[in-house]
Design a protein that fits this description.
By secondary structure, this protein is mainly beta. The chain has strands at residues 3-7, 10-12, 18-25, 34-39, 45-51, 58-60, 68-73, 78-83, 92-98, 102-103, 107-111. Helices cover 0% and strands 51% of the residues. The strands form 2 sheets. Strands 2, 4, 5, 6, 9, 10 and 11 form a 7-stranded mixed β-sheet that branches.
Length: 113
């Protein structure tokens, strides 16, 4: 059974940092392109970042480029999203997964002073 469990939720001040984790089970995360998306209050889903399978190709939305870093620990079968220089507009529920495997339950990130 495929499972994706996000963690790392938190309340952080603008300019702060947070790292989200996505623990995968039932499949090998390095064998799939994996994506982070987010949903801000009252808004639709927004694509954030993608890490291609096997290789190290990474992609970011313009809104997070230069501030967020997606990575993967193959030994832990876990996907990460390092978020730096956080802004108010980064407040959202963050989900990991992809269209084929599905998505986790999400983890809340709140940026507030």
């Amino acid at each position: 059974e495929v499972q994706l469990v996000e963690s790392g939720r938190g309340l952080v001040q603008p300019g702060g940092s947070l790292r989200l984790s996505c623990a995968a089970s039932g499949f090998t995360v390095s064998s799939y392109g994996m994506t982070w998306v987010r949903q801000a209050p009252g808004k639709g889903l927004e694509w954030v970042s993608r890490l291609d399978s096997g290789g190290d190709n990474t992609f970011y939305s313009d809104s997070v480029k230069g501030r967020f870093t997606i990575s993967r620990d193959n030994a832990k079968n876990t996907l990460y999203l390092q978020m730096n220089s956080l802004k108010f507009e980064d407040t959202a529920v963050y989900y990991c997964g992809n269209l084929g495997l599905g998505w986790g339950q999400g983890t809340q990130v709140t940026v507030s002073s």
